[in-house]
Amino acid sequence: MNNQDHDTPPESDGRKAVLTRIEEWRRRPHRLAGDFITSAHGAGGKASQSLLQAVILPGFGSAELKKANDGAILDVGDESRVVLTTDSFVVTPRRFNGGSIGDLAVNGTVNDLAVMGATPRWMSVAFVVEEGFHIDDFRDVVADIARAAMIAGIEIVTGDTKVVGKGAADGIYVTTTGVGVLPDGRDLAYANVRPGDKVIVSGSIGDHGIAVLIARGDIELQAEIPSDTAPVHIATEALLNSGASVRWMRDPTRGGVASTMNELAMCAEVGVRLYEQSLPILPAVNGTCELLGLDPLYVANEGKFIAVVAPEHEDIALAALKSVEVSRGARVIGEITDQHPGLVVLETLFGGTRIVDMLVGDPLPRIC
Amino acid sequence: MKYIDEFRDPVAAKKILSEIERLAATQPHRKFMEICGGHTHAIYRHGLGDLLPESIELVHGPGCPVCVIPMGRVDDAIHIALQPDIIFCCFGDMLRVPGGKSTLLDARAEGADIRVVYSPIDALAIASKNPDRNVVFLAVGFETTAPSTAVTLLNARERGMKNFSVMCNHVTIIPAIKSILDSPDLQLDGFLGPGHVGTVIGNYPYQFVVDQYHLPIVTAGFEPLDILESVFRLLRQLDEGRCEVENQYRRVVRDNGNPVALNLIDKVFTLRPHFEWRGLGFISHSALQLRDDFADFDAELRYPVPGVRIADPKACQCGEVLKGAIRPWECKVFGTACTPETPIGTCMVSSEGACAAYYNYGRYSQRGLIPVKVV
Hints:
CATH architecture of the largest domain in chain A: Alpha-Beta Complex
Radius of gyration of chain B: 21 Å
CATH superfamily of the largest domain in chain A: PurM-like C-terminal domain
Shape of chain A: globular
Shape of chain B: globular
Low-confidence stretches of chain A: 1-11
Structural class of chain B: alpha/beta
Low-confidence stretches of chain B: 367-375
Oligomer: heterodimer
Mean pLDDT of chain B: 90
């Protein structure tokens, strides 16, 4: 709260006291409420954080894990370092407009490596399959994984298959673990982020989450919204090799851009200011969100990443990203500020402001 | 996007705002209540608070259907959901609403089959797909959502569905407005009328606000320009010494409402003698129950419900917030013990609740909607 009041109109003490009180509570170690795991613990928001901080980190707690990155950087005593990441995929339905569980399983892991600055190299694939799952469906999943891996240029080198009883799993779950190589001299970390830096998103936001929502068929909506699932490693490479000073990158999957920006604000102890008018949102995605009362900032992406770059390199960075198909829609959506550290604030179309907080639980549609 | 972009035009907003400033400058401090939670949400989401003159105070009203459900009703719902062989369907907002001990989300983790639906028709579809299970739909909402519940029930009866029922929590807006107006701790200068309810009940039912309480009311739409224009219209009425029911949301609200929808409500529902509103207490004739000829579809008759009344936690001041007597952040537990992740009061649960809207969106606004009170 130190630099909170730069250039802001004076606030009365009462209001400031409330803000301070809230900020103190927000920064307390996360505590688990309730005795059972709920869907909120898997949604990538506050509840996920509390599970991580209250159970997982104390249980394992290696220094590398505590950095809370998408992957671990491992020093193997050589000149280059190795990056390791892992992810499980449980999506229903398994096939949706623009992709499938197989695509996600490869691209999700490739992208976690890519935003760490690594070149994706090797991957393992493990299946948990429910008894009674059709062999043809299994073939399809395997074929999708093989094709996606070929496109992403990552080699599948080991794997495992387990079958569980009928009803013990929902069809099929896929876990992939990826290994990438981090070229010497690459340094992406929260600590590098400075006030004034620009926040760039590589393209339209919210496509994947809405595509899956529609594919689930719970809502009768006819909209042509393909998932954005795609490997982004060529775009991250182009950016990192462009000469622009890249501070930090992350792929805004579960929990969307809002959750990723909140992690950045909290971990880097900076404020993030986003501009509503700059957010790239496809009209169909925007329309679906309006109808259902969802906020595209919280909707998942599977082929996008966010990069924080030095302000003087904004143009070089954008040019590099726009030269690659997957990030052709890149644009600056905000900047880092020393005001309101720990908070993400959105400047609305009208010049008003609102907070963009961490997601609580699953995004819940409003009723009317 | 058509029908949205034109109501979010910053240039047009500037024009209205300068008109608002001109009128506000000649008037004393004004306190307007937006009755509907949809307005509260939109005001914070678009940061409108930063834009209005300081002399205009918007007070948040009781029109969030999730927020007014008392804890005992939530417990009843959980009790039904935990019965064997039940598929319990509800809107997403209801999942995290705290009952006496737990929430529907907790019940789901304990094994209850609870599904989020977007419309009661979806719940009926689930019932016809699962003929061997009993499906219960938790109906909440004002007159806005009651017609769709009515259509669903008529449909279910026509199809002779035996495995579908509704736990009805529909409430009506007019008694709630009366209760606010009769509350001694609140001085208002006018209302932003609930536009979506207006699409069903029309403008005439609001006439009593003018006739009996001599306050202007403008039925307002939900886009930023709608809200700003409605504030302007309230100021203009006060400036010209008028006091009327005005309709800003003319593109969807007719003066006599939607007769088809009203007829559906009348066919299926009847008024309850009284109903408990969270924070506001028991209000006579303020809620709907199924008519006797729909008794077979009434979940409260089909399943045992404890029906225990549970007092609000002492620390929680949702009642005062719902009546607009205090601002969200003036509640003692706001933002500390009560947050969107661990809500104590219902106002913190639904994104339309005043507390959640303020916490999620508004707490860092450059200048509050509310002229700040120095503690």
